[in-house]
Amino acid sequence: QVQLVESGGGLVQPGDSLRLSCAASGFTFSDFWMSWVRQVPGKGLEWVSGSDGDGGTTKYENSVKGRFTISRDNAKNTLYLQMNNLKPEETAVYYCAKGGAATWNTGARGQGTQVTVSS
C-alpha cells in the first residue's frame, strides 16, 4: 500500500531554513507527480509545491516562490522541500501528497511534520 512518511520539521526562528523529507513506498515513485501541502492551525489544507516524476517540472504557490525549492531523489524514493526565509505565518503541519496541484487532494497523504516559526 502507498506509504508516505515526512520528517524534518521543527521549531525555527523567522528567517531560518528547514529541509523537509518524505520517504515514499508502495508505488512507482518516479511515475508520479508529488506535492507538498500544509495546514495552518484553524485553516484548510493549502497546496504549496509540486514536482513531476523526474523533477524536471516544478510548481510553487505564489507566496513561496523564490524561497522554497522542491526536489526529489527517485533512487531513494524521497521527496524534499527546502524552505528558506521562513515566516511566522508559515507555521503549519506540512504533508507530502501523491499527485500534482490538481490531484493531490484525491491521493495519499502522509501523517505530516510540524513546522513552527517563532521568535
Quick structural overview:
The protein is mainly β. It is 0% helix and 47% strand.
Describe the structure.
- The chain is mainly β and 119 residues long.
- It is built from no helices and ten strands.
- It has strands at residues 3-7, 10-12, 18-25, 34-39, 45-51, 58-60, 68-73, 78-83, 92-98, 113-117.
- The strands form two sheets. Strands 2-10-9-4-5-6 form a six-stranded mixed beta sheet, with no helix packed on it.
- The N and C termini lie far apart (40 Å).
Tell me the radius of gyration.
Answer: 13 Å
Strand count = 10
Shape: globular
For the termini, the CA-CA separation is 40 Å
Poorly predicted runs are none
Fraction of residues in β-strands? over 45%
Strand order, sheet with most strands:
2-10-9-4-5-6
Helix content: under 10%
Mean pLDDT: 96
- Helix segment tally: 0
For the biggest sheet, the summary is: 6 strands, mixed
Structural class: mainly beta
Strand-and-helix sequence, N→C? EEEEEEEEEE
